[in-house]
Amino acid sequence: MIVIFLSICQFGLLVLCYYLQIMTYPLAWKTKESVFLAADTAITTISEEKLNLGIKESSFGQENFLDEEEGRMVEERVVKLFLRKNIGITFAGNYILALKVTTIFYKKINEGCEIREALNEALFLNPIPNNKSLEFIVGYYENKPKLLYFNSKIGSTIKEGEGIIQIGNPLEVHKKLTEEWVNDTSNSQAKPEVQLVAILGVLQSYNLFSPQMERGIGGAFCGLRISKDGGFWQPDILYMDYAVSQGKLVSTGFRHDSLVINSPNIGRSRCLASYTFDMTQDRVYEQTKKAVEKGRKFHMNSQFEYIIMVHVQNVALTIVEMQRKNKHEFIWIESIKDDQEQGTKITLFPEMRAIANRPKEKEGLIIIPYRKPKKGQKIPVKHISKDI
């Protein structure tokens, strides 16, 4: 089953007692070649009326948060990234306000405004209410990678961002770790796509090592990158929790500006649409319908571009480049399609197990490029397999 989540504010279903707040973890950074944006998919709802969780768990098995006395709920529900005209946006703060600013911004871009002018008009066309806050990041390439940043809490100035910008509500220890990982990957020889995948793996691991849903952070992390060649959503990724035997394979990918997540933890898939207020209901549903149809194909054919193995016990990440192939020298992916079940089986060769099981004192992150299987290579008698 695939569940399509559309914001309740999009189609007039929002009642005044609801307040949607993004106590979240978006971030952006840039290198000499590219600008990157990433964010989680949790959203906080505050209401005077009784709240009910639609689904108790996020795609990665975290418990969605509900405090009935406080009237606060946090659940995996929205994509806080936009990519239009090779311009990326992410934000934190009041969700409705952020969508309004995003809609106006892209409208001004379509009318021919320069990027900074469009952002200025989108932010200041209407005053931001004192009881609402907004942090807003715009990433683009104009002769070089550029970032613009705005925070309503510290004034009305749009600033140019350097290095890494982290907004929302992340733990200080996570902010420090992320900065270190961004610096390490930026200084490596890895191509931009791999750099993005590596940071998404790091961000996702935080919520596996120490769940943060109660703080308003969680669900699937997703990302995009922009360079002189254009704007690109993240590659198709399969996450694998190596420390458990069953049920911890989650895949994520974008189709038609919508994040499609396949998860056995909740027994279904999710489609989170990235859209603005000027899109009609019919257009959004058509977009998500196409996303679901195409998303099913890469899920069912196991044609992932990367596998991220998370070893929670050893606090280690291993990224394997697959290039949409089912066989790597160290790991094979097999699609299961019969009357009894459908899903994916993963087989790890001894070399892969040795790397994944490395001690804590070894490298926290290892990236393995694609390697063709050896001629005549066969699955050993003793192997690890996991099924979706």
Topology overview:
Elements: E1 2-5, E2 18-22, E3 27-30, E4 35-39, E5 42-47, E6 65-67, E7 72-76, E8 81-84, E9 87-94, H1 95-110, H2 115-124, E10 134-141, E11 145-151, E12 159-160, E13 164-166, H3 172-186, H4 192-209, E14 222-227, E15 230-233, E16 237-241, E17 249-255, E18 258-263, E19 268-273, H5 281-300, E20 306-311, E21 316-321, E22 331-337, E23 342-348, H6 350-356, E24 365-368, E25 384-387
Parallel strand pairs: 1-19, 16-20, 21-24
Antiparallel strand pairs: 2-5, 2-9, 3-4, 3-13, 4-14, 5-7, 6-7, 8-9, 9-10, 10-11, 11-12, 14-15, 16-17, 17-18, 18-19, 20-21, 22-23, 23-25
Report on this model:
This protein is an alpha+beta fold and 388 residues long. The protein has a domain at 2-233: Glutamine Phosphoribosylpyrophosphate, subunit 1, domain 1 (4-Layer Sandwich). Helices cover 22% and strands 34% of the residues. Strands 2, 5, 6, 7, 8, 9, 10, 11 and 12 form a nine-stranded antiparallel sheet that branches. Strand 3 and strand 4 (35-39) form a beta hairpin. It is globular. Mean pLDDT is 84; it is low at 1-17.
